[in-house]
Design brief:
By secondary structure, this protein is of the alpha/beta class. The protein is built from 14 helices and seven strands. Helices cover 46% and strands 10% of the residues. Bound molecules: zinc ion (ZN) (2 copies).
Length: 341
């Protein structure tokens, strides 16, 4: 049994309440109870906890008696746990907590398309960051500027990933693609191949200035495609340098479709993207969407960018249970397969 000090737990509760700007009269009960506990032997406290007579002591009420009893039993008092975590954690801390819960990254590129490093280097870097898996999502054929993979090259890549996975096990590279959403909302790869892949991220890369209604229809068509698992960087905005404005679409309709077809909205962590903006993240959250917090890394060092996305999730109230890459690889796969079913 862990030895806890009931007086220290009471004072810690007071400290947390004060830090959360609670008025001192409400905090006083905990400091008073701590002072009472200071003057007593542990045996007496234990006897009173066993017989339910702690509240007979001066300055100890029901709440503080419960704290003392739990502490004596070696448990972290429930009240303490509540005040330690509820609304008291600074954003950075909460973002870090969320990052620690991420077990993989669902959007990364290798030198097979426009990334800078071989697949294995990306995988080893992801493993060394503590990930259990990384999804390799090189570009699709029509994105020629990014050396998008033809069906033949993608088939070759799948064979290579299989070989690398044998070497890196238990770490896993999951197969995937960042497939272009064509102008008519269809996806830029053979359906048979999309079906074979573990994770399909669908993104708009062309004609980003399309008229609003057309863009909405285009995106909804891609979202409703049973192969689509994640909607990549949905507005296409660039927030650094000369920048690029957001694409225009009816976000309520698009996010309702994501919720309906169980497609995760990507929180793209690239510093120049940070896409979608927070107002849209809130909207997607309210629509009931899931999320995937990804780096869209094109080089190993960029795999460290997830905290930027985590911070935005925290700021918009998105909890870990909405984030698909907090799941294990197997859980993720059963989700993408069900979604594809
Ligand atoms: Zn992209
Ligand atoms: Zn990408």
């Amino acid at each position: 049994m862990t030895d806890r000090d009931p007086a220290a737990d009471l004072r810690r509760i007071a400290f947390c309440l004060e830090r959360a700007l609670e008025p001192s009269y409400r905090v006083k009960a905990f400091r008073t109870a701590a002072a009472t506990v200071d003057g007593l032997q542990r045996e007496e406290l234990e006897h009173r906890a066993a017989t339910g007579s702690l509240t007979e002591l001066p300055g100890i009420g029901k709440v503080t008696a419960t704290v003392i009893a739990e502490s004596l039993a070696g448990e972290e008092p429930v009240y303490l746990r509540r005040v330690e975590s509820l609304g008291l954690t600074p954003v950075a801390q909460a973002a870090d907590d969320l990052r620690q819960q991420l077990r993989g990254d669902c959007h990364t590129h290798s030198d097979w398309s426009d990334g800078g490093s071989p697949i294995e280097e990306m995988a080893v870097a992801a493993r060394d960051l503590g990930h259990e898996y990384v999804v390799l999502t090189d570009h699709s054929p029509r994105l020629t500027v990014a050396r998008g993979l033809s069906p033949e090259r993608l088939r070759e890549q799948l064979d290579l990933v299989g070989e690398i996975n044998e070497r890196l096990s238990p770490f896993r590279i999951l197969t995937g693609i960042e497939v272009d959403i064509n102008l008519d909302g269809s996806l830029d790869q053979e359906p048979e191949l999309l079906d074979r892949l573990d994770v399909v991220v669908a993104s708009v890369h062309s004609k980003l200035r399309m008229e609003r209604d057309e863009m909405t229809a285009r995106m909804v068509a891609a979202i409703s495609n049973p192969h689509t698992d994640v909607l990549g960087h949905c507005t296409g905005r660039i927030v650094t340098g000369k920048g690029r404005p957001e694409s225009e679409f009816d976000a309520e309709i698009v996010f309702a479709a994501c919720a309906r077809f169980d497609v995760a909205v990507e929180i793209n962590s690239r510093p120049e993207r940070l896409d979608p903006p927070k107002r849209l993240l809130r909207l997607a959250y309210e629509a009931g969407c899931r999320f995937s917090i990804d780096t869209d890394a094109h080089a190993p060092g960029q795999l460290t960018w997830q905290p930027l996305g985590c911070e935005r999730a925290v700021l918009t109230g998105i909890e870990a249970d909405r984030v698909v890459n907090t799941w294990s690889a197997d859980e993720l796969l059963s989700w993408t397969r069900a979604a594809a079913g």
